């Protein structure tokens, strides 16, 4: 049943944030402002994405990022837009971005928050009009205000997140986020420039029959991983792999399913990054009744050693992730 504060579908994001802020007696509005700053940047990036075929911002930027990936122009544009919105919003002191090797100090030394962000997820899909996304994770700083954020502020485990969310630039553009009291989805109406509550209190199905794995890497799957994928086929599950984590995650969140990016020969620790891909989606999926692990331990309890740490990701319906973990445990 809906919680007592269930708001009618159609509430704007702004009104929802303000109303939910009342749930936090000590909230002073900074986190609310920060969420609005992110939504503003999402509207701007959404517009750039929708025009990318028309103005010269498609294709490669001609630079390699710290991940060793060829940055796409929209990777760089999205990075600039989110960093600028967070800097101008004033609430964030330090940013971790997939596209920047070092932390970004915003100059807001009074800012109480740290943001880890994947400004554009699914870059390989940008030029072929397939859904892409943005993923963000928000922490309170542990160091006193009045100075730049420290590495201790930045390398907190996922259980310390105060909020996490994603934007999916798909057939419609949506923002889905949690502040630890459930998960809510908002759909963007471009003609009004507003996000409207469209998916209140998202509960992910306990099980499902969809598995999302890049089987092109199956030659280097571990025995447990190979056995689990064979099991999915025996069960007659559907294979769905879009190549944009946000899109695969969002479909499985709503319909049930499991997404796995395992350890592979090319990426022994998995390809996905703990701070700005695995942890935010793990927070969301747990808040929606699902599960996230590296195949062995809860994703949000992994202690980060570096801001660009990678880890395997098993995420989605609780029964499916638990089943996959059983296969992974057998090989130990
Ligand atoms: P990003 O574009 O932010 O670097 O992330 C891409 C990720 C994820 O979105 C997707 O699921 C995965 O890379 C696809 O990797 P493979 O092409 O190796 O399957
Ligand atoms: Mn990338
Ligand atoms: Mn990504
Ligand atoms: Mn990215």
Summarize it.
With 332 residues, this protein is an alpha+beta fold. It is built from eight helices and 15 strands. The strands form three sheets. It has an eight-stranded mixed sheet, with helices on both faces. Strands 12-11-13-15-14 form a five-stranded mixed sheet, with helices on both faces. It has a two-stranded antiparallel sheet with strand order 1-2.
Topology of helices and strands:
Elements: H1 13-21, H2 30-50, E1 60-64, E2 70-72, H3 73-89, E3 92-97, E4 104-105, E5 113-121, E6 132-140, H4 151-154, E7 161-169, E8 173-178, E9 183-189, E10 194-199, E11 210-212, H5 223-234, E12 238-239, H6 245-255, E13 258-261, H7 274-287, E14 291-293, E15 313-316, H8 318-330
Parallel strand pairs: 3-5, 11-12, 11-13
Antiparallel strand pairs: 1-2, 3-4, 5-6, 6-7, 7-8, 8-9, 9-10, 13-15, 14-15
Helix pairs in contact: 2-3, 5-8
The chain binds 2,5-anhydro-1,6-di-O-phosphono-D-glucitol and manganese (II) ion (MN) (3 copies).
InterPro entries: FBPase_C_dom, FBPase_class-1, FBPase_N, FBPtase
Binding site for Mg(2+) 1: 98, 118, 120
GO molecular function, one term: fructose 1,6-bisphosphate 1-phosphatase activity
Characteristic key phrases:
single chain, 332 residues, alpha+beta, eight-stranded mixed beta sheet, five-stranded mixed beta sheet, 8 helices, 15 strands, binds 2,5-anhydro-1,6-di-O-phosphono-D-glucitol, binds manganese (II) ion, FBPase_class-1, EC 3.1.3.11, Fructose-1,6-bisphosphatase class 1, FBPase_C_dom
């Amino acid at each position: 049943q809906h919680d007592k504060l269930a708001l009618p579908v159609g509430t704007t994001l702004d009104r929802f944030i303000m109303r939910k802020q009342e749930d936090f007696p000590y909230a002073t509005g900074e986190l609310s402002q920060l969420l609005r700053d992110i939504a503003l940047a999402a509207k701007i990036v959404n517009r750039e994405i929708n025009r990318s075929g028309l103005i010269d911002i498609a294709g490669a930027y001609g630079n390699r990022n710290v991940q060793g990936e060829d940055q796409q122009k929209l990777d760089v544009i999205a990075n600039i837009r989110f960093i600028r919105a967070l800097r101008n919003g004033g609430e964030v002191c330090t940013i971790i971005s997939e596209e920047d090797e070092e932390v970004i100090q915003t100059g807001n030394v009074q800012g109480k928050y740290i943001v880890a962000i994947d400004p554009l997820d699914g870059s390989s899909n940008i030029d072929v009009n397939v859904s892409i996304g943005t993923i963000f994770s928000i922490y309170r700083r542990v160091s006193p205000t009045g100075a730049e954020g420290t590495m201790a502020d930045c390398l907190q485990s996922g259980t310390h997140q105060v909020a996490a969310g994603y934007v999916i630039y798909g057939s419609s553009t949506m923002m889905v986020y949690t502040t630890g009291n459930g998960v809510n989805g908002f759909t963007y109406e471009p003609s009004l420039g507003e996000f409207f509550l469209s998916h209140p209190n998202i509960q992910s199905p306990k099980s499902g029959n969809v598995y999302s794995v890049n089987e092109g890497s199956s030659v280097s799957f571990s025995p447990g991983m190979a056995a689990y994928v064979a099991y999915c086929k025996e069960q007659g599950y559907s294979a769905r792999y879009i190549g944009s984590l946000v899109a695969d995650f969002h479909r499985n969140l709503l319909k049930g399913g499991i997404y796995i990016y395992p350890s592979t020969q090319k990426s022994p620790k998995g390809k996905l990054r703990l701070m700005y891909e695995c942890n935010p989606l793990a927070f969301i999926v747990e808040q929606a009744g699902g599960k996230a692990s590296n195949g062995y331990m809860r994703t949000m309890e992994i202690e980060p050693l570096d801001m660009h740490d990678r880890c395997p990701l098993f995420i989605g319906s609780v029964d499916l992730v638990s089943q996959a973990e059983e296969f992974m445990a057998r090989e130990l």
